[in-house]
Amino acid sequence: MKPLARTLLLFFFIGSLAMTLRSGIQIANNPTLSPIIDRSAAELVALTDRMMAREATPARLDALITARLVETPRNWVALQALAGVAEEQGQPLPAAYAQAWEEDSGVMAMSGDCLACIWDIRTCSLSTALICKAPILLTPVEDLRGVVKAGADYSMGQPVDQLDLGLSVLGLGATAALVATGGTSATVKAGTATIRLARGMGRLSPALTTRMAAAVTDGIRWADLPKVRGTDDAVALLRADALRPLADTVTDLGRVAEAAGPVPALHLLPLVDDAVDARRLARASEALGARTVSRAEVLGKSRLLRATIRISDTAIGLIVGLVGAMMSFAMMLAGLVQTMMIRALRRAARVT
Predict the structure, then answer these.
(1) Does residue 297 surpass a pLDDT of 70?
(2) How many domains does the chain have?
(3) In this model, does residue 32 exceed pLDDT 70?
């Protein structure tokens, strides 16, 4: 019986090792064969629906809404997203919700908030930022102002706001190319405006701010900065290869703004710390649309962004083969040790 078991274990070990080697060779020889792949939009929607059914309990929704209601200023992007989930479930909203909405949505309150937002972007809420400040930031005037200011600061030896400069140059490039290329440039422009708004409102993560500023350091022809007098001069400052990571991130955040909406994009931007986060959030937004905010509120950043990817079949085969080979080897080794111990005990018994 033991020889048969050892033979079976040996065959199992060889088969598992062969599966592991085959999957590993496939991944190594095919650059497009990644062990981690993106979920399709349909897969992402189905998965997040199941996650919401499990996590969005009445008690959790009530706690999330109550926590948002006590914030100053109130975040109505998040509140309305959570209220939508509660209404889908037939759950009544807290009494304080209607009262808070009445307080915040008054015409006079909005007028005062809008004037304050235009004067100082740091006073903007998510809603007033879109209504009052975004139209200004979506024009080439703001981008050209950023480049000219950076040139003046550079000439006088003053610190240059590198991130604002990079966004301005990308924005001018996108605006200049808009007539020729259409949607792609519009996406970049939406991304630069969203990032500039988020930064002014303190909604840009420190990690993303640092990474973007670093990309600008090598992506701008600094010696030519004081010579900028117009759009064409500003676009000529670009070092395309060095600015590619920044441009990709800006484009992905523009995709978020287009898919989920400009104000929801401002709400979601603090979730982004690097280019990987930006790409995954863009994919989630394009699949989920307006529901991206409610998913982010209930599930959190980690689970939402992880839901956009899955392990490929090849990687699963590699893992299964590796685990199988390790288990079979361990069992073979255990059997060998057991046999050696039994033989040693028998010899000791004969001696005594």
Answers:
(1) yes
(2) 2
(3) no
Residues 143 and 242 in one domain: yes
Q: pTM for the whole thing?
A: 0.73
For residue 223, the 8-state DSSP code is G
**Cβ neighbours of residue 255 under 8 Å, at least 6 residues apart?**
187, 191, 282, 285, 286
Residues 318 and 269 in one domain: no
C-alpha 192/C-alpha 186 separation (Å) is: 10
Same domain, 250 and 143: yes
pLDDT in tens, 53-105: 999 999 999 999 999 999 988 898 999 999 999 999 888 998 899 888 888 87
- Does any domain span residue 132? yes
**225 CB neighbour count, 10 Å cutoff:** 22
The parent domain of residue 123 ranges over 106-273
CA 15 to chain centre: 40
Residue 281 to residue 303: CA distance in whole angstroms: 11
- The CA-based angle 113-265-132, given to 5 degrees, is 25
Q: Is residue 338 part of a domain?
A: yes
Share of the chain above pLDDT 70, in %: 69
- Residues 173 and 322 occupy one common structural domain: no
Contacts of 232 (CB under 8 A, 6+ apart): 176
